[in-house]
Design goal:
By secondary structure, the chain is of the alpha+beta class. It has a single domain, classed as Sufe protein. Chain: A (Alpha-Beta Complex), CATH 3.90.1010. Helices cover about 40% and strands about 15% of the residues. It has six helices and three strands; from the N terminus they run αβββααααα. The longest helix has 21 residues.
């Protein structure tokens, strides 16, 4: 059912843990299956120099998290954003169809951690900023509340 690489990354996961002073942290979860992935990135000069993860979930979730950290290390932020769930699954020599959602979570965790890094460093694209005030913010509706106060 599982490839040797999946079993290896499950039994001997790489890069497990936290990065205390992470430059980007992303957490994603799937309520349907209960898997939760948290990825930590350390970035220097636009290159991911360290990546760690903590995952609560099945063996495939652990394996895809492990492989995702291996794939992003040494990549630039832009290169890491191009890592797809398909690339994660292929690097593990495939996943059973019912476990492909784990590779989706791995891709999403990478993106969330990179977005967190970009937010912390003012690197979000202008379209990611609030269209009303131009600020980069999580709550795009804050300007409505400010307008009500006037």
């Amino acid at each position: 059912m599982y490839s040797e690489k999946v079993m290896d990354h499950f039994m001997n996961p790489r890069n497990v843990g936290e990065i205390e002073d992470a430059d980007g942290v992303g957490q994603v979860g799937n309520a349907k299956c209960g898997d939760i992935m948290k990825m930590y990135l350390k970035v220097e000069d636009g290159v991911i120099v360290d990546a760690k993860f903590k995952t609560f979930g099945c063996g495939a979730a652990v394996a895809t998290s492990s492989m995702a950290t291996e794939l992003v290390r040494g990549k630039t932020i832009e290169e890491a954003l191009n890592i797809t769930n398909k690339a994660v699954a292929e690097a593990l020599d495939g996943l059973p169809p019912v476990k492909m959602h784990c590779s989706n979570l791995a891709e999403e965790a990478i993106r969330e951690a990179i977005n967190d890094y970009k937010k912390k460093n003012g690197l979000l694209e202008q379209e990611d900023a609030c269209n009303s005030c131009g600020r980069r913010c999580d709550d795009i509706h804050h300007h409505l509340e400010e307008d009500d106060d006037e």
